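Lecture 7 notes: from sequence to structure.
We start with the chain below.
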Amino acid sequence: MSAGVCRWGILGTAGIARKNWAAIRNAENSILAGVASRDLGRCEQYITECQSSVPFDPSPRAFGSYEAMLASDEIDAVYIPLPTGIRKEWAIRAVRAGKHVLGEKPSGISAAEVEEILAACRDHNVQYMDGVMFMHSKRLDRIREVLDDGRSVGQIKRVASQFSFRAGGDFWEQNIRVDSELEPLGCLGDLGWYNIRFLLWVMNWRLPEKVSGRLLTESGRADDPAGVPIEFSAELFFADGVSATLYCSFITQNSQWAAVSGTEGWLHLSDFVTPRMGSEVEFTVCNDQINIGGCHFNMEEHVRRHAVREYSNNQATAQETNMMRNFAAAVLAGQPNREWGRMALQTQQVLDACLGSARQEGALVELGSPA
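Predicted structure tokens for the same chain:
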């Protein structure tokens, strides 16, 4: 390991990896040392394209196989954006090769797979983290202050969120996210992971007691009759009466909002996953009041905007850069932070329960019970 620098490798040439290519470049404690693909020519082309946009000096090395990258002593940590269906295999192979692992989400097909990954990480003393970028935004620190002040929102009673995009073009024919073998969790794994993660963070990592999931629409590619969830909703219930709802979809237009409602007001984010372009990230707190006098019913708007100076993308302060920076810091310190693995496991446990309920026509499923 180079002094003060984590040497990254990207295992695969997925589109999302281009964003993290730039994030590695913007993190002062990281450098991209290589990219691996099963097709060397494709790997070289990918590097050429990314170098033209965000260059490294020297250019990352092209590896003609995943195995070659994992065997290299030039790589300290790997980012794995491979399909969920094969993610566990390559995460564990990377760990056994002594590499730290940043894995895309969902972390696995099931909680059992995630437990295998985390056990391997403990055995080999390496860091694991999932790729939820918003967890590294400074906006969360400010939201926590507001939620905890006892006045702005008060006692939390309800959390709601929606994350969706309307897929078009060749998505339904070629995209792996509607391939039941590669991405069996469909929109629930690709999008719902974020809804669940935000909820668990708001609730300070308390798991819901029961969940009820609904598989609203299931579909797949023409060459894959099995189908995957493409529209999903769930209701979640906590021990103290707090309830939550989530919706994720590949068939409704772009939306990524979240709301936390309490006894005193409610907090709203219009872009909780990927902040809109700009130099600030924001959220609002609403404490509307109704004043009644005679025949006049006046609903008064009382809204406070909270903003944090943080660029939305491709900058040193952006959440994806913070993710790479935070991961590399744990690697360089030689002290893996196991909390990140726990967060991933809890998210997967809730996801499993939601899907298990949906497969039973919405029957209530208790966390920890067979799905």
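Points to note: The chain is about 35% helix and 25% strand. The chain has two domains: 6-134+318-338, 138-312+348-366.
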